[in-house]
Amino acid sequence: MTEAIGVRPRQLDASAVAALAAHFGGEVLGPDDGGYDAGRRVWNARWDRHPALIVRPAGTADVVAAVRFAREQELPLAIRGGGHGAAGHGSIDDGLLIDLAHLNAVSIDGEAGLATVGGGALLSQLDQAAQALGLVCPVGVVGHTGVGGLTLGGGNGRLQRKLGMTIDNLRAVELVTADGRVVRASEEEAADLFWAIRGAGANFGVVTRFELALQPFDGRLTRGFAMFDGRDARAAWASFREFARSAADEWSLTLAVARALPEDQHPPAVAGRPVVFIGFNHCGDPAAAEAGSEQLFGGAATISRNMAGATYLDVQAMNDQAMGWGHRSHIRGALADDLADETL
Q: How far apart are CA 5 and CA 196, in angstroms?
């Protein structure tokens, strides 16, 4: 039962819900059913929404039935792939939530270099299945993120400079439209719809299956990390900026400004104070990574630094616990060509 005191979602016509459930291959959960509260939760604990009904389709036909039900009952609709969207779009108040968790199959055609991925699959499933054959699709950086939301949102990750964003590797989708039709969209079929879902916005349909291009990758990365005193932010940024402008595509670079917390896990000289972190992943020759790191980290004296080899699968999972479910997150972003000294 819903656990929030005083919250009661919209009541639906019981006969209509029963008619849906009678021919539904997956699960149909109302507010009084076991599993409802777990089903309505999303990754970002800021959002505590109460759908009128949750359905977990067992196949594409169930998605069609759910979309038609929502239209007939005039219900707003939310789609949940992995439930990771920071803005909480994987749930809804007083509407129908279609949870694609059971549509999570991943199959790899190594000869064609193609992955077929269900709308409810997670990044870790795709990573592991592709790497078993020495292949990869560039995806995000937290393994329990859903492939669907990440792909349709663009898909930033550690290999994007070399292999593109996830959306760049999308070759086709199976999609259920608002009127309940099942459409295959690609560059050759329903090309306008395929164009639309690759950046024109949301709400063009429910993607039940993705076809993603795979690239050869042996899974070896070199990782490096350095910490600088916050008072050296301008010098560290200048070195980072100069390096990034000419870096080969094998480099993935990050710079962050933060406080050195918890204090007992940082050197006394900076504990609790502002620091600058510069990190990289390099997917090519380790010798090139070592040589380049001297330039990247050379803008100021480092408080600490390290560099080591790692496997792609290990690196892809390393943030899974820190970025686990249940935290309350406020995330904003912007694009800039540079950072001014005043900003730093």
A: 41
For helices 233-246 and 286-296, give the axis angle rounded to 10 degrees.
140
Q: At what angle do helices 60-72 and 14-22 cross, to 10 degrees?
A: 160
Residues 186 and 338: their CA atoms lie apart, in Å, by 36
**Class of residue 269 by CB neighbours under 10 A (exposed 0-12, middle 13-18, buried 19+):** exposed
Q: How far is CA 87 from CA 168, 199, 229, in A?
A: 23, 17, 33
CA–CA–CA angle 20, 25, 26 (5° rounding): 90
**What's the rounded Cα separation, in Å, for the pair 33 and 55?**
12
The total number of residues written for the chain in this structure: 344
| 248 Cβ contact partners less than 8 Å away, ≥ 6 residues apart | 284, 288
pLDDT tens per residue across span 275-319: 999 999 999 999 999 999 999 999 999 999 999 999 999 999 999
Q: How many angstroms separate the first and last alpha carbons of the chain?
A: 49
Q: Which residues lie closer than 8 Å to 156 by C-beta, 6 or more apart?
A: 140, 141, 165
- 105-135 pLDDT, tens per residue? 999 999 999 999 999 999 999 999 999 999 9
The residue assigned the tokens 């910490």 is 227
What is the pTM assigned to this prediction?
0.94
Alpha-carbon dihedral angle through residues 339, 334, 329, 157, given to the nearest 10 degrees? -90
SS3 241: helix
- The residue written with tokens 């900026």 in the block is 241
Task: Give the SS3 label for residue 186.
Answer: strand
* Burial of 334 per CB tally in 10 Å (0-12, 13-18, 19+): exposed
